[in-house]
Amino acid sequence: MESEKEIINRVASSSLITFDLEDYYQAGERVVIDIKDQLFQGIILKEKNFRDFLKSNDWSQYKDKFVAITCSADAIVPVWAYMLLGISLEPYARQVVFGSPEELEIEIFRSVLNKVDWAKYKDSKIVVKGCSKVNVPSAIYVEVANKLRPFVSSLMFGEACSTVPLYKKVKTIN
């Protein structure tokens, strides 16, 4: 009778650290405010009308929401209009950015990732997890790779059992 060999999970016993961007996802509603809805005849912003809109709107409806401000119309909107809108939202919204929904998502991730102590990954072998239940913009993967590279001994992408090598520190002999 053959002796049974113990099955060893080499992935679990490896020194690999999984960096999961899903852990940095901020839950909350994302909304877009499009200034095109405030344009006169769809082409021009009238200051008085816009200021009336800002005064009469119930900004509390944006409480704790992530807000992207944009203008989808082909119109020249003065920068101060976006600034006034941001000022109106700031007391209520969790975060306000100028841009698309994707740019909003990038900024949400950045605000969290800017608090990470990247030095704690010094000389570590890191796998940036590839599969996620949330939408992580490609720009964030690039940013994380650039933040980790100066510290890690190796950087990979994917899952611990199937990785794509991205970077390996050259060993120097002293």
Major sheet description: 4 strands, mixed
Order of helices and strands: EEHEHEHEHEE
Low-confidence runs of at least 5 consecutive residues: 8-13
Tell me the count of domains: 2
Shape estimate:
elongated
Written account of the structure:
- The radius of gyration is 23 Å and the shape is elongated.
- It is an alpha/beta fold and 174 residues long.
- Mean pLDDT is 91; it is low at 8-13.
- Helix 1 (47-56) runs parallel beside helix 2.
- It folds into two domains: 16-25 and 115-168, no CATH class; 30-93, no CATH class.
- It has a four-stranded mixed β-sheet, with helices on one face. Strands 2-3-4 form a three-stranded parallel β-sheet, with helices on both faces.
- The protein has helices at 47-56, 79-89, 101-113, 138-148; strands at residues 16-19, 30-34, 66-70, 95-98, 125-129, 154-159, 162-168.
- The protein starts with 15 loop residues before the first strand and ends in a 6-residue tail after the last strand.
What key phrases describe this protein's structure?
174 residues, alpha/beta, 2 domains, four-stranded mixed sheet, three-stranded parallel sheet, 21% strand, elongated
